[in-house]
Amino acid sequence: MTKKSCILITGGAGFIGSHVVRVFVKKYPDYTIVNLDKLTYAGNLANLKDIEDFSNYNFVKGDITDNTFVLNLFEQYQFDGVIHLAAESHVDRSISNPIEFVMTNVIGTVNLLNAAKKIWNANIDNPVSNKKFYHISTDEVYGSLGAEGLFTEKTAYDPHSPYSASKASSDHFVRAYFDTYKLPVVISNCSNNYGSFHFPEKLIPLAINNIKNMRPVPVYGKGENIRDWLFVEDHAAAIDCIFHQGKIGSTYNIGGNNEWKNIDLIHLLCQIMDKKLDRTEGTSASLITFVKDRAGHDLRYAIDASKLQNELGWKPSLKFEEGLEKTVSWYLSHEEWLNNVTSGAYKEYYTEQYAKR
Ligand code: NAD
Ligand code: TYD
Predict the structure, then answer these.
(1) Which of 101, 110, 111, 201 is the most exposed place for a label (fewest CB within 10 A)?
(2) Of the ligands numbered here, which is closest to the C-alpha atom of 254?
(3) How confident is the model over 167-181, as a mean pLDDT?
(4) For residue 355, is pLDDT > 80?
């Protein structure tokens, strides 16, 4: 990238995207950052309130499945780089409505690839090296591990949920555009994130919200599934590192080296919440409720992030206990955010504000 680059970040009003937008807007004042987001239930401009008036930040409301709109946007801004995070991201929703996931995650990604290919005039005889299309993906494309082993960049894809199948499909398209058109792409596959601005339908923010309100905490099956948790700000730092230093055509795994059984994680969360809310020990844990398991529930995810660490020098900065405590404190001090995202009030307010511009 040059100092004056114009960067498109898609899905920048979501959980991870808002952290990425914040890092780029603050750290690179000479870049122009364009945040393209449809503002679905998961996207919220309140997540970016602290940077909305920065002169290098622009928000565009739009849908990546609309190919004419996407192409016009690329023509208007002549982006030098793309960091693509926009997606439908919740496995349970993908089980009840897979088509939405095909539309945004697959068709939306291909629309962006086509626009980048056209604007950068990428083809097999014209390899482009001064631009970058960075696709953000998930470790869920690799499927499920048994008790042993880690996902590496060479692990074969074996997705099980409609969500992971749609992400796997989008990853394949991104690679195909590199092989076929020499589009300058890079991909990363990250493990489960946690931290501030996480929509309270995913395990950690949902449990925090329910414990706070003395509501049951649903644990699927026996709670024995294992996830490798990474603090969202560490993911944003990895994205910054890969966007600037990642080798074109490469894939990087990102993970926290931090495996937790769901039930152990929930017990740790309950202990933290009892302390923070001044409750008698065991009060929060009494809310744990085992419920019917998720269909096709992957047993274990765990990432080998050594390529990223050895080649680009990134590593997680925070221990899980510290990150979880920080996250609980954030949710307890952002009651208004939590109430507004669950009621949809922010979405209404910002949609109205946007319409007035
Ligand atoms: P999120 O659901 O919080 O945010 C997604 C954002 O995309 C929202 O702001 C939403 O409004 C926007 N969006 C959805 N459909 C759109 C469309 N058609 N057009 C434009 N914008 C649209 O998701 P997240 O957890 O922040 O995940 C971001 C990316 O990171 C996704 O690609 C996801 O697959 C990937 N990822 C997430 C995790 C995780 O633990 N959350 C882990 C690894 C990878
Ligand atoms: P989730 O946060 O939905 O992320 P993902 O499915 O992408 O890993 O779920 C994390 C783990 O927690 C997963 O094993 C499913 C489980 N889970 C529950 O036990 N209860 C819940 O209410 C939710 C949302 C998830």
Answers:
(1) 201
(2) 1
(3) 97
(4) no
